[in-house]
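Re: the 141-residue chain
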Amino acid sequence: MNFTIGGQEFFDVDVPLLWGKRAFVEDIMGKMSIIALDDNQAVIEVLADQPTANVQHETADDKLTISVDGKALYTYEPGTKTVVGIELGLPQCQIQAEGISVGIYNYYGKTASGANVSVAVDDIDTHIGAPLPEVLANAAS
């Protein structure tokens, strides 16, 4: 599929941004959706900048705190499109009109094509081009 996220163009990719085990997708209105790819199923946690009914969350100071089993995993601030890991141990990620910032890395004016995952972030590093997470690879086969 083709995606635009944070001003970056992604052609023929399955997931434009994978933050740990969470895929980020931006709709044509600029609203973000975050999909958890834990376990053996994909769960939409944030849909069009709003928490979904099936996810534990709190809203305060224009930030959503997403929790699982009572543990706060991350915050997402729709106004700045910033996600900050709490329990996840992942670097801060911000989707901006001109690019994507992950920790100390900035991706501006990039175009990617033909990768399963274009930008993949884990607790150690950020990668350009990565295989699909197992839960998605199993669903695709």
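The chain has a mean pLDDT of 78.
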